[in-house]
Design brief:
8-stranded antiparallel beta sheet; Beta-lactam/transpept-like; single chain; 21 strands; alpha+beta; Beta-lactamase-related domain-containing protein; AmpC-like; Beta-lactam-related; globular; 13 helices; signal; Beta-lactamase; Lipocalin
């Protein structure tokens, strides 16, 4: 069903109280209530079993809360301190570990990887450490090998057995010529960290990153249940079911770390502080790299470098069996938003952006003036997709929409016949006008567009 159904739920939740036993907020009470309500809505809509969210200004947490269940059976509530598997967010910790070793002179970004991994079959190509960091190596990603990897993912395997899955696969492209997200590259980076440091990857992360920076929950995940840690779920026939098992030997330095939302929210400012890596290497990590033909990427080392709400963002998502995560740092504001959920289909980025719009100054969507005569152009009855009736009308001077059987919500005018929904600005209604009135609109969501046509009487 189109996401309008979920948005209608959002419109009913202004008074919902958080489900967490522990919470903290230094935001103004009205803003805290709005953030709580936005997060509680995804639990009410059944999008995830549990979720924890934290907001930091600098390395100081100003909001943290948990909603829903960290474990479904027996039920244990999610809190601001619940620990989750963070999936691909692991990559930025691995990248930071590599850069620390670069700063210490134990390796170089332009080292051929065979200097640290003797015998690795580069098939006549020169693959550099920085190619692994920026996902431009061309090495085949083992998690994209389909059944060949999937049938082994629940097994505890030594690193050389996992490397053997992909090492002799054909390259996807020549190193440095294209970008493709690559878990094999970050797996190899973990091995390089071990060789250069003389320590196991998990130990190096703990002793060099987690302990010195005071990130008490950051650790290598265990494969079984642990106290204070969320269980991972999928949705099966409308119910939360345990996610497919995954041995944590498999994701390794590409995805095997765990942390709380509170510690993740503090991490970007601590990384930028110079305590772990010096400013020049931090700038390199958080700046877009360039391909051999001059094309500029939107990716640095373990982090995306993008824009949201008119701001530069340093961000990354994480998805792993049973879990979804998103972490975004807004350098100009000194604000970081961390979202961790324990259901693998959950859209953590969408919730992160909803929270960011609330806490970043001027980040909410605009609502341009629209004369009464212009509003009447869009008002009418529509059918969304094959069968869902949607009514659009003017109420108290604002266009309002209501899917049949659901609550109404406002539309915010962006100009040119384009509106965003009041409760999720990532959802857009773009109206097509013919002969002085709208004949249809497109409901545009992330990755999906659905057409609604005007009903004729």
């Amino acid at each position: 069903m189109p996401r309008l159904a979920t948005l209608a739920v959002l419109a009913t939740l202004a008074g919902l109280a958080p489900a967490a036993a522990l919470a903290q907020s230094q935001l103004a009470p009205p803003l805290t209530a709005r953030v709580d309500s936005a997060i509680a809505a995804v639990i009410e809509a059944g999008e995830t079993a549990g979720v924890s969210v934290a907001v930091a200004r600098g390395d100081r947490v100003v909001y943290a809360n948990g909603f829903g269940a960290a474990t479904v059976d027996p039920r244990r509530p999610a809190t601001d301190r619940t620990v989750y598997r963070i999936g691909a967010l692991t990559a930025q910790f691995t990248a930071a570990a590599v850069l620390r070793l670069v700063d210490e002179g134990r390796l170089a970004l332009d080292d051929d990887i065979t200097r640290h991994l003797p015998g690795y079959p580069t098939q006549g190509r020169r693959v550099l450490v920085r190619h692994l960091l920026e996902h431009t190596s061309g090495i085949a990603s083992y998690t994209s090998l389909g059944p060949r990897w999937e049938r082994t993912m629940a097994r505890d395997l030594p690193a050389d057995s996992i490397v053997a899955l992909f090492a002799r696969e054909p390259f996807d492209f020549e190193p440095g010529t294209a970008f493709r997200y690559n878990n094999s590259g970050y797996f190899l980076l973990g091995l390089i960290v071990e060789r250069a440091s003389g320590q196991p990857y998990a130990t190096y992360v703990r002793t060099t990153i987690a302990d010195p920076l005071g990130l008490g929950t950051l650790r290598y995940c265990g494969s079984g249940a642990e106290a204070g840690t969320a269980n991972g779920y999928t949705i099966d026939r409308g119910r939360f079911a345990p996610a497919a098992p995954l041995s944590m030997t498999q994701p390794f330095s590409a995805g095997a770390l765990c942390a709380s939302a509170v510690d993740l929210a503090r991490w970007p400012a601590l990384l930028a502080s110079g305590r772990l890596v010096p400013a020049p290497l931090y700038r390199r990590m958080t700046s877009p790299d360039t391909l051999a033909d001059g094309r500029v990427l939107d990716y640095g080392y373990g982090v995306g470098v993008r824009e949201f709400a008119g701001r530069r963002t340093i961000e990354h998502g994480g998805g792993i069996n049973g879990f979804a995560a998103h972490l975004a740092h807004y350098p100009a504001d000194g604000v970081t938003v961390a979202v961790l959920a324990n259901t693998q289909t959950f859209d953590a980025q969408r919730l992160q952006r909803a929270v960011a719009r609330l806490v970043l100054p001027g980040a909410g969507p605009r609502d341009l003036p629209l004369a009464a005569a212009e509003q009447r152009v869009y008002a009418g009855d529509y059918v969304l997709g094959a069968h869902l009736p949607v009514r659009v009308w003017v109420e108290r001077g604002r266009l309002t929409a209501q899917p049949q059987g659901q609550r109404a919500f406002g539309l915010l005018h962006q100009g040119g016949g384009v509106f965003v929904t009041q409760y999720d600005p990532d959802v857009t209604l773009a109206f097509m006008v013919r002969d002085g009135r709208a004949a249809s609109f497109e409901l545009r969501e992330v990755g999906r567009t659905t057409v609604a046509t005007r009903r004729t009487r």
